[in-house]
Amino acid sequence: MSLLYVGIILAGVGLLLAVIGIAFRAKASSIASAPLVKTGEAARHTGAVGVEGTARAVQQALTAPCSGTPALFYRLLVQKKVKVKQGNQTSTSWKKVFDHYHDAYFARDDGAGVVQVHAEGELDGQLEQTFQGAPPGGPGLGSLASFAPPGLTSDPREEILEYKATESVIH
Predict the structure, then answer these.
(1) Do residues 163 and 156 lie in contact, with contact meaning Cβ atoms separated by under 8 Å?
(2) Which residues of 38-75 are buried (b: 16+ CB within 10 A; e: fewer)?
(3) Are 164 and 81 spatial neighbours (Cβ–Cβ below 8 Å)?
(4) In this predicted model, what pLDDT tens digit does every residue of 98-123 receive, in sequence order?
(5) What is the pLDDT of residue 25?
């Protein structure tokens, strides 16, 4: 391979890494720019703020679907391991089937007052992994099939070898 091709490949990889770095920096910047305030002061602020303190349910606690763990919020990521044949080549890879976040309301209190939090979608927080393995409740997606989005289909060229569920929660 000539040095020109090596240079082009390295430049492409460098450009890709730069784009990824900029995206991560933008997200970190938005998180870092949210001021950390006492929970009693959070209601007086407009926009995003950070609060610390003990989390507690303001509604009936959720039950995480795989572990049965009581939770204030949970994320359920389901992946499938597939085998694909293309001509004489066979490849095996993991693909995301769905990523489910269960919205929830909970409260945080650091002693300065209570603030209610509505967690929706992807949450920037410390989630604890409570389950990883084959979905419970039988073959395929098992009892997790009800969490799959409507109209979920598979590529007919894929042979599904196994499913894996990863559950993470905020207690």
Answers:
(1) no
(2) ebeebeeeeeebebebebeeeeeebebbbbebebbbbb
(3) yes
(4) 999 887 788 888 888 888 887 777 77
(5) 62
